[in-house]
Prior knowledge:
By secondary structure, the protein is of the alpha+beta class.
Amino acid sequence: MANGNSSEAWYVDSCASTHITTNGDNLLEARTCDSVAITTANSQDMRAKFVGNVKISVLTNTGIEKVKAEEVLHVPDSAANLLSVSKMVEKGFSVHFTPNGSKIEDSDGHCLGIMTNEGGIFKLMTREERSYLAAKRPTAELWHKRLGHLNYESVIKLSKNHLVEFTLRR
């Protein structure tokens, strides 16, 4: 268990009862966990090997930030990295799902992560996701929509800080 940092894909799951990572290298302060069984939606049983914290590089309203997920189980047989909505709510966070831009906020309303809806599954936008999206050269208007209708001045500021790239329509 190495660096505890992740920029891999993470999915926000309202059915998950705990945070799960498929990659043990994501764990920080890892410790073994005995007899923690996970049952999936299709009734498959899996076992957690370790538990620890993970720092995830995510896109927020102000740029890339590292957020910490605590008590994340390492389940190598899991199909994906999952963030549990119920665990986030227990910690005092709010998770907002909207057609125009979904996000996670702390109790002060500070954005901790922006999600995209990919076929009904909400994916947290990570550093790798930002790089992928920038390669498509979207418009400022598209970034405005993707970032929950963030004002254009802030979208331009993100561009100046090389956090998003876009082409101007003429």
